[in-house]
Design the sequence.
């Protein structure tokens, strides 16, 4: 709170750059918001959506803190998991396409 906006932006971008080298150079816009107090909340009945959100669904992979209860930890875990599943699906698709293009051997 005691830093000016430019300093806050720099701290965040430097931090991100350590985890994702080169990231800061690609940021075109960053907005600093100051919330002296703040709390996340859900609307009543939000829990009824949970079963649908966590259901596996073909080629759609969700990630985010709303899939679990550990906030950032859940966001990271589900992001990694979704990325692995997408990569696996794409690899399977490539293998299937390559197999389909390979001429069948004759049985002689
Ligand atoms: C006040 C507060 C304090 C918190 N403190 C902690 C803490 O101490 N520790 C902790 O682990 N977690 C904390 N959290 C929770 C943590 O911030 C979240 O769990 C985490 O940011 C979730 O990451 P995410 O990627 O799932 O979602 P987000 O960080 O919310 O990212 C979702 C992104 O999607 C973008 N978006 C939304 N809709 C669209 C659209 N239609 N098109 C394009 N982009 C879109 C949003 O702009 C946002 O950038 C806190 C949250 C709040 C609000």
Sequence:
């Amino acid at each position: 709170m005691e830093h000016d906006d430019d300093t806050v932006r720099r701290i965040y971008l430097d931090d991100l750059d350590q985890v994702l080298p080169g990231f800061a150079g690609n940021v075109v816009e960053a907005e600093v918001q100051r919330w002296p107090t703040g709390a996340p909340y859900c609307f009543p009945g939000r829990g009824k959506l949970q079963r649908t959100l966590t259901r596996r669904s073909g080629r759609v992979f969700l990630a985010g803190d709303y899939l679990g209860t550990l906030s950032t930890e859940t966001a990271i875990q589900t992001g990694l998991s979704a990325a692995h599943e997408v990569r696996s699906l794409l690899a399977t698709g490539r293998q299937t396409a390559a197999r389909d293009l390979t001429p069948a051997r004759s049985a002689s």
In short: The longest helix spans residues 72-101. The two ends are 78 Å apart (CA to CA).
